[in-house]
Each structure stands twice: as C-alpha cells, then as structure tokens.
Amino acid sequence: MGSAALRCFCYGSLFTSVTWTLLLFIYFNFNEESQGFRHVPVKGLEPYKPFPRKISPGFTRDSNKGHGHRPLDNQGEAKADLSAELGMIFNEQDENVRDVGYQKHAFNMLISNRLGYHREVPDTRDSKCKKKTYSAALPRASIVICFYNEAFSALLRTVHSVLDRTPPELLQEILLVDDNSELDDLKKDLEIYIKENLTKKVKLVRNRHREGLIRGRMIGASHATGDVLVFLDSHCEVNEMWLQPLLAPIKENHKTVVCPVIDIISADTMIYSSSPVVRGGFNWGLHFKWDPVPVSDLGGPEGFTAPFRSPTMAGGLFAMDREYFNTLGKYDGGMDIWGGENLEISFRIWMCGGSLLIVPCSRVGHIFRKRRPYGSPGGHDTMAHNSLRLAHVWMDEYKEQYLAVRPELRNKDYGDISDRLALRKRLNCKSFKWYLDNVYPEMQVSGPNAKAPPVFVNKGMKRPKILQRGRLMNMQTNRCLAAQGHPSQKGGLVVVKECDFTDKEQTWTYNEEHELILSNLLCLDMSETRSSDPPRLMKCHGSGGSQQWVFGKHNRLYQVSVGQCLKLLDVTSHKGYVTMAICDGSPSQQWHLDN
Ligand code: UD2
Ligand code: MN
C-alpha cells in the first residue's frame, strides 16, 4: 500500500516537473518571438556573457576546500578558463559536489556554488519597459521565501539578488521560512551568515515540523508587516527593476494580484535566459500549463508591456496586497507539501472579485528542474489530495471533468473542507461556470474527450546550423567514435572502433547548439547521471545541458553539465570503451572532428 502510494507520488512529481519543462521547451521552439534556449549564449566558443569576469568568483583546483558554499576568492590559475567552463571538475571533491547536488537538488550545485551569491543577469525586459517610470510612493513589500533542503548557494543568491536589486525604501523585510530542512548547512551556518552578512531586514522563521510550501507560506505571511506580500521560490534571481512594476498595479487596485514573467535558469548550466511572454492555464487533470496570450489582451498603447489577465498563476512567484491575502482566505491549510495551491488561489481570486495579471516588465529567473528532488512524509500523492480539495470547493459540477480524468480518485478521502466552503459563501464568490465563461473561455472547447487544439503554431522549427560534420577520432589511437550497437538505438553506448570512411554510421554532426549527433539520428548525452557514468546516445532534446559538448584547448571534448572530458578508457583494449574523466589534456582525452 505504502509503496504503491510512494510510487504514485514519485510518478506524479516526475510527470508535473517534466510537463513544466516540456511546455516551456515546446514554446521556445515553436514560437517565433521566443528568445529561449536557441538563443542562449553557449559556453565555450564565444565569450561567456552572463557571468562577467569582474563579478565571477575565481576558483582554484582546490576550489571547494573549507566551506563548500562560500563564494570563492578571486584568484587562481584557472580564472581564464572560468567564464567558459564554470562547471569543470578538477578533483574528486568537485565531482562529489556535482553528483550530490544533482541527487539532492536536481541541479548543478557545483556551478551554483562557484557563481557565488551575487551575479549579474541579462536584462531580459523589453526595451519599452526600460523607459517606464514608476511613482516613488509605492507600497512596501515583505518577501516570503519558503524553503526545504535548498542548496545554500541558491538560497543565498535568491536573497542577495533581492537585496541587490530592490530599492531599500520599498523593502520591508525578507522572511525566510525554513520548512524543517535536514541539511546541516541550513542550520547554524545559515544563522551565522545572516547575522554576520545580512541586514536586519532578513529574518529566519523555522518550522518545527515539515509543513509543506502551502502552510509554510501562510506562516511566513503571518510574520509579515509590509503592505504587500511577495512570494518567491528559494532558487530564484530577480532581475533589474523587478519590484516596482509589480507594486504599481496593486497600489492602483488592492484586489489585483500580479505575477512577474518567470525567466529560466538552466538546472544544468545556471545560464539565465529570457522566457517568452505567456499566460497561465490548466487542463482537466488540474495540471498547470502555459498558453499563448490572446492578441486582444495585448493591444493598447503600451503594447506588449502592459499587464494582462491570466486565468491561473504558476504558483511560486507573485505579489498580493497583504490584507487582501488574509481576507481572501490565505491558502487552504488542509493542503499538504506541494501542488494544486496555485490553481486554488487563482480560481479564488477570479471567482471572489479580484483579478490576476502577469506583468511583462517584471522579470524573475527560476531554476527549472527536471524532477522534484524531495518526497512527502508518508509518500502521499499530495498533488492528488490538494487537487481533490480544490475541485470539491471551487469547481461545482466541473469537478466531474477532473474525476473523469482521474476516476481512481473518486472515492479517495480529501479531509474536511467545510471551512473553505464557508469562506466561499462568506465572500459571495461566483460560480466556476462564470469563471470558465469569463476568464478562460478557451477551456470549454476542450472537454476531457475532445481533442485539444494545438496551442502553439509551428511557424517552422528552426534547425540549429551545422558547424562541422565528420568522423570523431581519438588522437591517441587514430580510431573513431561510433555506436556500440546500432546508432538508432536509444540509450546505446558509444565506443572507439577502426575508422571506416565509407561508413555513414560513423558520421558525427556538430551544430551551433553544441550537440554531437551520430548518423543524423541521436545525440551524445550525459543525462542527469553520476559524472563517472559513460555517455549514451539519446533523442536530441535541444535544451543544452546534458547534450552540450565543447571542443576546447588540448583537443579536449568537454561536457558542459558534467564538467568533465571524454576519455578513451583503455588504449590497449579492443573494446574501445569511453568514459568521462577530469580534464587533464592527456592523449587519451584528445579528439578531433575531421571532415
Ligand atoms: C511550482 C511553483 C511552486 C509551487 C508548485 C505547486 C513556480 C516557479 N514554482 O513548482 O512555487 O507553486 O508549483 O505547489 O511557479 N518547499 C517547502 N516545503 C516543501 C516543499 C517545497 O518549503 O515541503 C519549497 C521549496 O524549497 C521551494 C518552493 O517550496 O522554494 C517550491 O517548491 P519547488 O521549487 O519544488 O516547486 P516547483 O518550482 O517545481
Ligand atoms: Mn521551484
């Protein structure tokens, strides 16, 4: 029973996270206006813009000695390489930081640590946004950041980005809510860091039990004293002038709730890149999704820079008048750990007299991960529990749409919802039908059985430009890298074989995305694995990271997300196995792509 529930939760988590990533990814690839992955500056070939040398912490080959999380001193022989190869592994300790980081946080903690707590990020705002001015008399914000087992460096970068890019007169406080984390450095070390390095405006609240992000945020909000609450995830970086555009519409109407555009920080490379302007929707499985913004909502003299209506919010990043948060019923305290609260508050805002807007001139980066690295106590599927609650409180007869997608949940217990039903009555909220008709009319065309119309118009997918094509030769043996089995076999290994210049199956293509594609079929890939695992052939995903390879000095072939170089394992063995290893310029690590 328990293990089935755990499995269910894990699959659920995986599904949601993957859906998130996929949706964003699809949008980038199919939207002409997107400035997404295909435009992200890539390490290696060109100067690495997002991390200007002057603010990048330097590191030495003993980079992680002492406190693994502190920004490193600005010294060291590897400095010249830093901007190009920030993820490079120099020793076992680096390898450990990277592997443990992926396991505990599902992102590259080695790069996160090396970035330190301050960095510049590209200003992703539209040029019209940069010309806008805001009244000096704006409400003051309390920033609430709830975290559970967050990487120290990611948490501190979130906090410092707020301190660095927020006018002090608008910042009432930053409330860090520790949701009973287990990681050692989030205990005493964090307290010491706050005490010694941060302003008194940064306050730490500790939950004595794991509450989950929903009750965690309510606890944070109960300590807040500012006019407006701003919620952020614990792995964000706010951009230039992020707060003023959020506060202005709230000042105008305290029932307006606003979200910034969520830019993308790559989990593999920590590269910050711009997101397309999209709005929030959902499907009948009660999963959040991104939708294009109807053109009618983007008109007006301000064009693409004016706040526009969004049927739902993604959940993590939004600002709301504090009094209004309280009178509107905070969150549903019966919801656990993760999931569903974003749709619940979105429906509640619209149905009970407020409005939810996305503000294109406010940009905040968020690390998007491929999976959620934590579970829930007891392994419960909290997304299902929370969704059932919200369906029964807010969706009237439309809850049947959800139950049609998830019939196994029909008789599942979801706890007591009488308080929430009373709240709905007290606030005199409108029906879910009203919400669908007036806020999300697009939803009605796609019932559970109807085929959803394609949301994104494919205006011709841009294929990355090919830079080079040829055989990938190991220079020590003059033998060539090829598939161990057939090059179309997903998950297959690559090995070094005798070169055959007539064999198309030994042809590699190297493109501007820094992908290495064998025989025009699959990409050389180091998915979120331990850095000592060998690379495999996988479907090309186009989002960099695990499929990004850079030819560097000494003919090395460097893998960006692993921070290591491709190496022929045993020169004398005819098996020709390859592996990833610390880059040392040795002959077994030298590769040449010839035409
Ligand atoms: C998205 C939202 C997230 C939340 C979630 C649905 C964004 C960018 N993120 O998922 O904020 O709305 O959808 O519930 O819109 N945390 C705790 N205690 C826990 C679990 C998590 O404090 O038991 C913290 C966690 O450290 C993080 C935040 O809650 O700061 C959100 O968790 P997440 O980053 O795993 O959620 P995400 O971004 O996948
Ligand atoms: Mn998050």
Task: Produce a short descriptive summary.
It is an enzyme of class 2 (transferase). The protein has 15 helices and 24 strands. It is an alpha+beta fold and 595 residues long.
Protein architecture, described:
The protein is α+β, with helices and mostly antiparallel strands and 595 residues long. It has three domains: 40-120, no CATH class; 139-438, Spore Coat Polysaccharide Biosynthesis Protein SpsA, Chain A; 466-594, Trefoil (Acidic Fibroblast Growth Factor, subunit A) (Trefoil). It has 15 helices and 24 strands. The strands form five sheets. Strands 13, 14, 15, 16, 17, 18, 19 and 24 form an eight-stranded antiparallel sheet that branches. It has a five-stranded mixed sheet with strand order 3-2-1-4-11, with helices on both faces. Strand 20 (549-551) and strand 21 form a beta hairpin. Helix 11 (341-351) runs parallel beside helix 12. The termini are far apart. Manganese (II) ion binds next to loops.
Please outline the helices and strands.
Blueprint: H1 2-30, H2 79-82, H3 92-105, H4 109-115, H5 127-131, E1 141-147, H6 152-165, E2 171-178, H7 188-197, E3 202-206, H8 212-223, E4 228-232, E5 236-238, H9 244-252, E6 256-266, E7 272-273, E8 279-282, E9 288-291, E10 308-309, E11 318-321, H10 322-327, H11 341-351, E12 355-368, H12 382-394, H13 399-405, H14 418-426, H15 432-438, E13 466-474, E14 479-483, E15 494-497, E16 508-511, E17 516-518, E18 522-525, E19 536-538, E20 549-551, E21 557-559, E22 564-568, E23 578-581, E24 591-594
Parallel strand pairs: 1-2, 1-4, 2-3, 6-12
Antiparallel strand pairs: 4-11, 5-12, 6-7, 8-9, 10-12, 13-14, 13-16, 13-24, 14-15, 16-17, 17-18, 18-19, 20-21, 21-22, 22-23
Helix pairs in contact: 11-12
Bound molecules: uridine-diphosphate-N-acetylgalactosamine and manganese (II) ion.
Uridine-diphosphate-N-acetylgalactosamine is lined by residues 17, 146-148, 150, 179, 210, 212-213, 216, 233-234, 262, 314-317, 337-339, 341-342, 366, 372.
